[in-house]
Amino acid sequence: MTRKCEIARKTRETKIALELNIDGTGTYDIKVPDPFLRHMVETLARYADFDIELAAQGDLDHHLIEDVALTLGEALRRSVGDGPIARLGSATVPMDDALAAVHVDLVDRPFTHIELSQEDIYEHFLRSFAMEARMTLHTQVIRGKDRHHIIEATFKALGRALHLATRPKNKTISTKDKVSYEGK
Hints:
It is a single chain. Helix 1 (35-48) packs parallel to helix 4 and helix 2 (61-80) packs parallel to helix 3. The chain has one domain: 2-Layer Sandwich (Ribosomal Protein S5, domain 2). It is built from 4 helices and 8 strands, in the order E-E-E-H-E-H-E-E-E-H-E-H. A 4-stranded mixed beta sheet has the order 1-2-4-3, with helices on one face. Strands 5-6-8-7 form a 4-stranded mixed beta sheet. It is an alpha/beta fold. The model has no long low-confidence stretch (mean pLDDT 94).
């Protein structure tokens, strides 16, 4: 079974079409006007072994980056589905002067601790992505001075951690078993 999702998001500010296959090979086709955003989504795809096709446009870089993160988070949550997965993933990645570690738990308990400046749009990207995916996400910048290298090492580590966390398992890894909700 291939776990994938096609999703479109349209607001007054942005228009996004996304295809995500979490059982992919790391191929991507990213069409966004922001070159650094394109580079980070390509990096995420490559390091997670996710296939991502993304076409997005927006009125402002901030709106575009935030809405791409939200759409990716929603697509990840849908793609994982209801089957048991490894759930936990951690990775540490060096890139030149930077060393970043990322830890995820795809547990439907959204929380973030992100070691990037709160003024940095990619801190906002990671928080938006994690909240919409309903994951726990911790990032650590162990060292680094160059902003590009720090962010890229973080995205590489996120990709590797997500690859590990999304792998199918034969049983649910939780003392609670599977959580379900009932009601109207």
